[in-house]
Design goal:
CATH architecture: Alpha-Beta Horseshoe
Order of helices and strands: EEHEHEEEEHEHEHHEEHHEHEHEEHE
Helix content: 25-40%
Strand content: 15-25%
Structural class: alpha/beta
Number of domains: 1
Distance between the termini: 47 Å
């Protein structure tokens, strides 16, 4: 039998709750042998959240729900606490040399997200409690490349800030990387839960980036994420804490009023950030793209989405691995790139645009 149900403990009112509170939690037995796993287990019991034991996340096949759509929605509110057993890190170009895996899956419901397809039929959220194993593996990669700097991206398969109130894993990674002469950490988020990171000794070795967009995109395509104003306020806190900073504007979407929307976004960032935080500011610009598989999955999971995915209006762009995506035609892509780049340099003349893709 793949899973066993444990008794549900009596609920109590906690002093504070993270914005993401799972409706169901699975624990792999080995996870409870680690301090982080035990701490999450105690929190789950104190919150009165139903939980089960499972031998492996791959054995989870009986999520509630009468339809595929219902099961998907419930899976997005399901947390799996286990160990990261594969310690060979994936590459993470162009953001970093490697992805450092502390979580997989995301509680947000961004219609366009590539995790819609890469996570396939398992969209539940997994967190890993064997952080020492993960950081030891990172040390091996740093050693191989030194004296070159090795960058690690912590948000390739998840949004770790949204999970930080539960896991505390980013605090551990930031403090670990602060001591690495040749190692650097990067992550990006759509959430504002950064307060627990502000007092850390980071030594400038962690770059925190916020995924931002205009209000139209956030309202229509980014349910269950922090609001426009919350992200900008969090960015200002991070800047004041002395972290290297960046913004990912993604996906850049062509819509009625896009010029006004993206101009307002850049102006709002400029008004919120302290001036001394803009000297080492990076931007990454990513236009909206999709695959045929993603289009089919998105339309099934979000049947009333306003996301434009008309293949006839797009250009096919081949990828590095022999697979392509539908992007905007060159004329539209150039217009987006030029307009947003000009607004960035108008307000942040010392900023760097790492890439537009």
């Amino acid at each position: 039998m793949a899973t066993t149900t444990l008794d549900r403990p009596a609920a109590r009112t906690p002093k504070s709750r993270p914005s993401f509170v799972p409706e169901l939690v699975y624990f792999e037995p080995d996870a409870l042998e680690y301090p982080k796993g035990k701490r999450i287990f105690d929190w789950v019991k104190s919150e009165g959240i139903p939980y089960r034991m499972t031998t492996s996340h791959n054995r989870i096949t009986n999520l509630p729900g009468d339809t595929e759509l219902e099961q998907y929605k419930i899976a997005k509110r399901t947390l799996v606490v286990g160990l990261r057993k594969t310690l060979k890190f994936d590459t993470s170009k162009p953001s970093a040399e490697y992805a450092i895996p502390i979580a997989t899956g995301c509680m947000a419901h961004c219609h366009y997200c590539y995790l819609q397809t890469t996570l396939g039929a398992k969209p539940y959220i997994r967190v890993y409690v064997n952080i020492d194993d993960i950081t030891n593996a990172a040390l091996g990669y740093i050693e191989e490349r030194k004296p070159e700097i090795t960058r690690f991206e912590a948000a390739c398969t998840s949004d770790p800030v949204g999970l930080e109130p539960i896991t505390g894993s980013l605090r551990e990674l930031i403090e670990f990387m602060a001591e690495q002469e040749y190692g650097r950490l990067r992550f990006v988020t759509k959430f504002h839960h950064v307060d627990s990171l502000l007092d850390l000794k980071h030594n400038g070795h962690t770059r925190i980036r916020f995924s931002v967009n205009d209000k139209y995109v956030i309202k229509n395509f980014e349910p269950a994420t922090s609001r426009f104003e919350e992200r900008i306020e969090a960015a200002a806190k991070v800047a004041k804490a002395g972290y290297p900073m960046g913004f990912i504007i993604a996906p850049i979407i062509w819509h009625d009023g896009w010029e006004e929307g993206y101009a307002e976004l850049i102006e709002s960032l400029a008004a919120a950030l302290p001036k001394d935080a803009t000297k080492d500011l990076t931007f990454e610009l990513i236009q909206h793209r999709f695959t045929k598989t993603a289009k089919s999955t998105i339309e099934k999971r979000y049947p009333r989405t306003k996301l434009e995915m008309d293949i006839e209006k797009r250009k096919y762009k081949w990828g590095r691995w022999g697979q392509g995506k539908y992007v905007y035609p060159t004329e539209q892509a150039d217009a987006l790139r030029l307009f947003i780049s000009e607004r960035i340099f108008e307000h942040f003349p010392q900023a760097t645009i790492d890439y537009f893709t």
